[in-house]
Amino acid sequence: MICFLLAGYWLWAGVDGFVLLTQDANGPSNPLLKGVAILPGAWMNHFIRSPLLLIIPLLGMILPILAFYACLRGQTIRGFLFASLTQACVIFTAGITLFPFVMPSSVSPLSSLTVWDSTSSQMTLEIMLVIVLIFLPIVLLYTLWSYYKMLGRINLETLRRNDHELY
User: Fold this and answer.
1) For 33, which DSSP code?
2) 86 or 31, which is more confident
3) What is d(CA 97, CA 44) in angstroms, rounded to the nearest whole number?
4) Where are the transmembrane segments (predicted)?
5) What are all long-range contacts of 100-109, with beta carbons under 8 Å and residues at least 24 apart?
6) How much is the pLDDT for 49?
7) How many CB atoms are located within 10 Å of the residue 44 CB?
8) pTM for this one?
9) How many CB atoms lie within 10 A of CB 67?
10) So where are the chain's domains?
11) How is the chain split among helix, strand and coil, in percent rounded to 5?
């Protein structure tokens, strides 16, 4: 949490960010057909323009504290939920900070990949859609089954009762 806060301060005060000047969203997918400016503190522009977005990094700092106290009180499910939401908030904070850049290039800012010029062809996207429709339910069901099987606490009594099954 402290590192997350320090990283936010570092981005605001010490790192030059990228600003997209021109990009034709309907144009061809070419990373060189855009204008990019490098400005101090530009990675924080989305938070300055839309202060409501600050809720996400704030939750990224508050939720780990709530997870810690929930676990201290023995509320493991609530602690797990808060820890999971913490990870989501940190990832969303990075996404909001970088948007529309997906892979900024410090060597050649003009060559940075944005959401618009890092897309794929229609055929590739259709193939990926079919693959996702098949495999995502399998992965989700397996994950739910795994969590169901691992639900509950393991203590010394559980180990004694199941001494031939747990290892």
Assistant:
1) S
2) 86
3) 6
4) 52-72, 79-103, 123-145
5) 100/20, 100/23, 101/18, 101/20, 104/18, 109/18, 109/36, 109/38
6) 93
7) 18
8) 0.74
9) 20
10) 2-119, 120-167
11) 60, 10, 25
